[in-house]
Automatic annotation (TrEMBL):
Residues 69-518 form the Solute-binding protein family domain. Keywords: Signal. Pfam families: SBP_bac_5. This is ABC transporter substrate-binding protein. InterPro entries: Peptide/Ni-bd, SBP_5, SBP_5_dom.
Length: 614
């Protein structure tokens, strides 16, 4: 009955827009995590930010390596003189005549402020590490503070996060002597000074990268972001998600204005910016609607109440043959979905039962044992997920590095579904105590993602099949709740995908396997200790050191060899378990025109769309 009521409520809500050629309804799953561009690090958030904000440059159509100017009037290159100093200086001439949605003019100072605010905010688990690494060769403002002060950040501040009196000058110096000179205004230009050449820099700045979106400095300060001063920035450092003044609001220069984010209905409403510096968007209103129930999305698409719908590949056959629906298959992706382990689960987690190895829970470091990790790797029926759930729209990969990038090695071994080996591993886990006593923990997935749901259910079904002493709870969570639980380190295992931030192997290898990578915090302190400790099998280096050596290597062949060594170690130690690399499918009404594929885009480019025959 509940599903019926949800279905009817949604249909009543959209019927007014069904035949309106000025309104586009995108029926998807979930909702944004945050609208703050410097914290947003998921596709649901990025899709909204993509429409409202703009970057200095953009990808050229479907290309992953060619760029066009956006808020800059030229794409820097050595040939046009805008990349100098051996690749360490990038000059961006800023476009004139562009206005923010509130009517303010875009200026070079807005660009400078946007990047400086993001670097100083430096939220844990956010995307700003990319700009930190590209510009400074570090991963956060805390790293720079520590280098300047010679002590860890936490030892330099009081319980309120304020610098201790003897270190306040250090914090001011971090801005005045390092961050401010690295991004400077020079007339109509904004100039970036990198500490060393970094070839993916333009990819990190391109449209689709929310972390490089341009904010209005005046508006940002008015709503409560960093005030632009050198002696206050730490007040905003690592501000929590809901505390950000732009957590649930957005205001940029883009083709669409932000109107509303209805959290109750998981609905975002956008309207065309009629004062856009290019031609205004042809479609005047966009509704991005998170509808987790597939049958509702399907009915909306079939009736024309939705123009775009997320159709899981296992249900494609249910919409085939409809003459009004277009299905585009076989689209390449730069993405991998991985089951990862939390080696040190957060104290107080509700997903660990008793928190002890007593048959009613697991200890917080349960997955610090390689045999526990391998047991999970053997209870996943990977081929069934790909064939039954994804309907063949996926492929197996040995690690979190997708096929298509440098270093991908199809000869590496794969873990396969094998309950005999799973039992053998469990009998060795925790010196046999895991098998003897049994255990209990919870596996969560984000609602609406049936492939991840199936993987979670497999963990439960096959582990419980091995022994009556094993109990697994499967829990479906709304996307923001699920994401928060992973960030807080509460989930024993978690299933997450990674869509490339930029098309380079470092973006995947670093993210999943380095102690400073984005998923590091979700995998716990013992994971970080493991990958940062020198090991004989790695020639006396740590996995961290090997990854960072590979990222800096300019010889492609040598770089590929280094990544092969990294991945061999990852597989042998079951650091995480790649489930599949998806093959993308696109489904929309045939009256929607203008769609194009670019795997670096976080969702749709509504500005490119128009209706024909709606």
């Amino acid at each position: 009955m509940k599903k019926v009521l949800v279905f009817l409520a949604v249909l009543v809500a959209v019927v007014l827009f069904a035949a309106d050629p000025n309104v586009l309804v995108d029926a998807t799953i979930g909702e944004p995590d945050t609208l703050d561009p410097h914290l947003a690090y998921d596709t649901a958030s990025g899709e909204v930010i993509y429409q409202v904000y703009e970057n200095l440059i953009q990808y050229k159509g479907s290309s992953l390596s060619e760029f066009l100017p956006r808020l800059a009037t030229e794409v820097p290159s050595v040939e046009n003189g805008l990349i100098t100093d051996g690749g360490k200086t990038y000059i961006f001439p800023i476009r004139k005549g562009v206005k923010f949605h509130n009517g303010n003019d875009l200026t070079p100072e807005d660009v400078e402020y946007s990047f400086e605010r993001g670097l100083l905010y430096s939220p844990a688990g956010g995307p700003m590490w990319m700009l930190w690494y590209a510009i400074f060769g570090k991963y956060s403002v805390a790293d720079l503070v520590e280098e300047v002060a010679g002590k860890p950040y936490d030892e330099l501040v009081d319980e309120n996060g304020e610098p201790l009196p003897e270190y306040k000058d250090v914090f001011v110096k971090v801005y005045t002597d390092y961050i401010d000179p690295a991004i400077e205004v020079d007339g109509d230009n904004v100039v970036f000074h990198l500490v060393r050449p970094y070839s993916p820099f333009l990819n990190i700045l391109a449209q689709g990268s929310s972390w490089s979106a341009i904010l209005d400095k005046e508006w940002s300060i008015e709503v409560g972001l960093w005030d632009g001063k050198a002696d206050t920035w730490w007040k905003w450092y690592d501000q929590r998600k809901e505390e950000s003044p732009i957590y649930d609001k957005a205001m940029g220069t883009g083709p669409y204005k932000f109107v509303e984010w209805d959290r109750t209905q998981q609905k975002v409403v956008l309207e065309a910016n009629e004062n856009y510096w290019r031609e205004p968007a042809k479609i005047k209103k966009v509704i991005i609607w998170g509808i987790d129930e597939f049958s509702t999305r399907k009915a909306m698409l079939e009736k024309g109440d939705a123009d775009i719908a997320y159709i899981p590949t296992q249900y494609l056959d249910q919409v085939r043959g409809n003459p009004d629906i277009e299905i585009i298959e076989g689209l390449p992706t730069l993405s991998v979905t991985v089951l990862a382990f939390n080696w040190t689960i957060r104290e107080g987690s509700k997903y660990v039962g008793s928190g002890k190895l007593d048959g009613n829970g697991i200890p917080l470091d349960f997955f610090n044992d390689v045999h526990a990790r391998k047991a999970i790797a053997y209870v996943i029926n990977y081929d069934a997920i790909i064939s039954d759930v994804l309907k063949g729209f996926g492929k197996r990969v040995p690690t979190a590095l997708p096929e298509g990038l440098l270093g991908y090695d199809p000869t590496l071994p794969l873990y396969n579904f094998n309950l005999v080996k799973a039992r053998q591993e469990l009998m060795q886990a925790w010196n046999g105590e895991a098998w003897k006593k049994g255990f209990k923990f919870g596996v969560a997935y984000n609602l609406g993602n049936e492939a991840r749901q199936r993987a979670a259910e497999m963990v439960k079904m096959y582990l419980e099949m091995l022994s009556p002493k094993i109990k697994i709870d499967v829990v479906g969570l709304q996307w923001p709740t699920f994401l928060d639980a992973t960030k807080r380190g509460e989930l024993p295992i978690f299933i997450l995908g990674w869509l490339a931030d930029f098309p380079d192997p470092d973006n995947f290898i670093f993210t999943y396997y380095d102690s400073k990578g984005d998923y590091s915090g979700r995998q716990g302190a013992k994971f970080r200790e493991f990958v940062s400790t020198p090991r004989p099998e790695l020639g006396g280096k740590s996995l961290d050191e090997l990854i960072e050596t590979a990222s800096a290597e300019i010889d492609s062949a040598k770089r590929a060899e280094l990544y092969a060594k990294v991945q061999k170690f990852v597989v042998e130690n079951a650091i995480s378990v790649p489930l599949y690399q998806p093959i993308a499918v696109r489904v929309h009404r045939k009256w929607l025109k203008g769609w194009y594929h670019n795997p670096m885009r976080p969702g749709d480019d509504y500005y490119a769309y128009y209706f024909e025959g709606k």
